[in-house]
Amino acid sequence: MPLGILGNKIGMTQIIDELGNFVPVTILRAGPCTVTQIKTEETDGYSAVQLGYAQVSSKVLNKPQIGHLEKVGAPLLRYLHEYKVSDTNEFSLGQNFGVDIFETGDLVDVTGKSIGKGFAGLQKRHNFGRGPMTHGSKNHRAPGSIGAGTTPGRVYPGKKMAGQLGAKQVTIKKLKVLIVDVENNLIIVKGAVPGKPGNLVTLQPYTFNTK
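User: That's the sequence. What structure does it adopt?
Assistant: Structure tokens below.
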């Protein structure tokens, strides 16, 4: 898994490309991220790099978090995220990474928490069809039967039913990088990104998965 960076979603807008087409884009503020821990096969059983993002005051963090960051001489950072890497020799504690690890035309995977929509019914949550609306029908948006009676005498796990919609980790893959603004730590990608403005996201180079 290649190294990525953390950032925040600013919002969506549209730009005009060289062909005169309107392109929907998402603006992200990403980095700078600081290396706060390096894990190796010898010490931890796997190779990974931990990055910290968003400098805050000591009132936001607890004592173990403050001690972890002060131990490596890093500033007080609110968010920590770990990225598995194949080789940790090219990284050092306190090293900073920003949007300059990406270039225009790169493909990235963006992971964030989707917008929570509360308790939702079957039609909104699972795109079920509705029941008859006339002739005295009382089954407009009701779930209907959820299984047989005597056999199996229970509801199978995983049955699609009403429940919490959204507020889950979502990854949007293969978004194209259109603009990289190193001076202002901004990166603009084509398409939508999970969550509402201000949402914490992680950006990683797109990797083709054959599974």
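The helical segments are 41-44, 63-71, 122-126.
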